[in-house]
# Entry
Amino acid sequence: IESAIQNINAICIKNYKYILEKDIRPMLIGAAARHSAFEVQIPGLGAST
# Structure
């Protein structure tokens, strides 16, 4: 019985990690894209003023 519970827990953790990565990865990519775009804008603003 204990080994069956451990198997269920392992499956739940795998699914949880998959869902977590699926949700967080696009957010991280979006944040990184905004961050790099923001960094690119700073020199442009400095040069234009």
Residues 1-49 form one domain. DSSP finds one helix and no strands in the chain. The radius of gyration is 21 Å. Residues 2-48 form the longest helix (47 residues).
